[in-house]
Design brief:
By secondary structure, the protein is of the alpha/beta class. The protein has helices spanning about 25-35, 65-75, 85-95, 110-125, 130-140, 160-170, 175-180, 190-200, 255-260, and strands at about 15, 35-40, 40-45, 50, 80, 95-100, 100-105, 145, 150-155, 200-205, 210, 215-220, 220-225, 270, 290, 290-295, 300-305, 315-320. Residues about 1-10 have low confidence and may be disordered.
C-alpha cells in the first residue's frame, strides 16, 4: 500500500526506510512505488533522497542484493545509512583483538552468534572480496544522522551520549579503536553502541524470565525512550514479546525512572527502526516514528516520506507487504 499525500514545499525531502534485513525484492518494490528509478549508479529520485535506519544485513533471503542496492545509493550520494546493531555485530564478529599475543574475536563465535550471521555468510560464500568490501563499508556508517529538521538513529536517541560522542567524532563515524573499546562492557564505547543500536532495557524482577519468539529466555525487556512521566512497566515496555499479565502494572521505582532516557516533545522528529512492530504503521509520538515492521518475518517494509514537518503525520507512511515470493 502506498499512501497519498501532498508534501510541503521544503528543501528537506527524504524517504526514510526501515530495517531491510535482506528483503531486496521488496525494497525494489518500495523504491519503485515511491517513484525511484534505476540507472547504472543505482536507484535515485529526481527530487528526493533516502535514509536507511540500518539492519540491511542478516536473516533475509537476498542480503547481498539488498546491501548492493543500499551501498550503491549511498556511493552515488542518493542515500545515507546509519549503523544498525546487525552491521555492528558483523564488524565485531570479524574484529580480531590481540591481548598479549592471544588472539580472539571481539564478538565471540558462539553458537548463538554463529546462527545470527549464518545467512549472511552463506550468501557471500562465493563472493569473499564482496564481503570484505561490505565490512569496510559498514565501518564508515555513522551511528546517527542529524539534519536541521530531523534525526535518524537505529534504536535510541540518547542526547547525553550523542553530545559526548560528538566531542570525539562530530559526524558520528567512529574508528577501529572505538569499536575495540566495546570489549570493556563498562566503557563509554560499549554504552554508545548498546544504547544507539540496541536501545534501552530494564531488568525484570529477580528470578523472572520471559521467552522471546526466538526461543531465548531473557531477564530484560525493551523500553521506550519517549515515554512521558511513566509510572508502571506498561508505560515503558516496547517489544514484540509481551510481559506476563501479572507484571504489566508493576510500579516503576524511583531508581528505574532515573535510568530511563527521555526524548522531549519539543525535540525535532526522530526516526528509528529495530523494534519489530506489527500492524498498520503509525507514529509513536508526534515527533517519534519507528519504521521497523518486521519485513523479514513477512510483515511490511516501511518508509516515511518526510518533507520538513515538525509534527509527524500517519498519512506520510508508505509500505509494501512482504510476500512469500521474497524467499523464492
Amino acid at each position: 500500500m502506498l499512501s497519498s499525500n501532498q508534501p510541503h514545499v521544503t528543501s528537506a525531502r527524504y524517504d526514510i526506510i526501515g530495517d531491510v534485513h535482506g528483503c531486496a525484492k521488496t525494497l525494489v518494490k518500495l523504491l519503485q512505488a515511491m517513484g525511484y528509478q534505476n540507472n547504472d549508479q543505482g536507484y535515485y529520485h529526481p527530487t528526493r533522497k533516502t535514509i536507511f535506519v540500518g539492519d540491511i544485513v542478516d536473516r533475509g533471503p537476498r542480503i547481498r542484493e539488498a546491501l548492493h542496492i543500499v551501498r550503491d545509493m549511498c556511493q552515488a550520494q542518493q542515500a545515507e545509512c546509519v549503523l544498525g546493531n546487525h552491521e555492528f555485530y558483523a564488524i565485531a564478529y570479524f574484529t580480531l583483538l590481540n591481548n598479549g599475543g592471544s588472539l580472539r574475536y571481539l564478538r565471540p563465535h558462539s553458537a548463538h552468534h554463529d546462527r545470527l550471521i549464518a545467512e549472511t555468510l552463506e550468501q557471500f560464500e562465493q563472493h569473499p572480496k564482496d564481503w570484505e568490501m561490505m565490512l569496510d563499508w559498514f565501518k564508515t556508517l555513522p551511528l546517527y544522522i542529524e539534519k536541521k529538521s530531523f534525526r535518524v538513529v537505529h534504536a535510541c536517541w540518547d542526547s547525553v551520549l550523542i553530545d559526548r560522542l560528538k566531542e570525539q567524532f562530530a559526524a558520528g563515524h567512529v574508528d577501529d579503536a572505538f569499536v575495540a573499546a566495546t570489549e570493556n562492557h563498562s566503557s563509554f564505547a560499549a554504552a554508545v553502541f548498546s544504547r544507539l543500536t540496541r536501545g534501552t532495557s530494564m531488568h525484570l524482577p529477580p528470578g523472572v524470565l520471559i521467552k522471546g519468539r526466538d526461543g531465548i529466555d531473557r531477564s530484560l525487556f525493551r523500553t521506550r525512550f519517549w515515554s512521558q512521566s511513566p509510572q508502571t512497566y506498561a508505560d515503558v515496555v516496547f517489544q514484540p514479546d509481551p510481559l506476563p499479565d501479572y507484571l504489566i502494572d508493576t510500579p516503576l521505582s524511583d531508581a528505574e525512572r532515573a535510568r530511563l532516557v527521555h526524548y522531549g516533545d519539543n525535540e525535532r522528529p526522530v526516526f528509528i527502526g529495530h523494534y519489530w512492530l506489527q500492524g498498520t504503521p503509525k507514529i509513536l509520538r508526534p515527533n517519534v516514528a519507528c519504521l521497523d515492521y518486521s519485513a523479514v518475518k513477512y510483515g511490511k517494509l516501511v518508509a516515511y516520506r518526510f518533507d520538513g514537518e515538525q509534527k509527524l503525520d500517519n498519512r506520510k507512511f508508505c509500505w509494501v507487504s512482504v510476500e512469500r515470493e521474497e524467499a523464492q
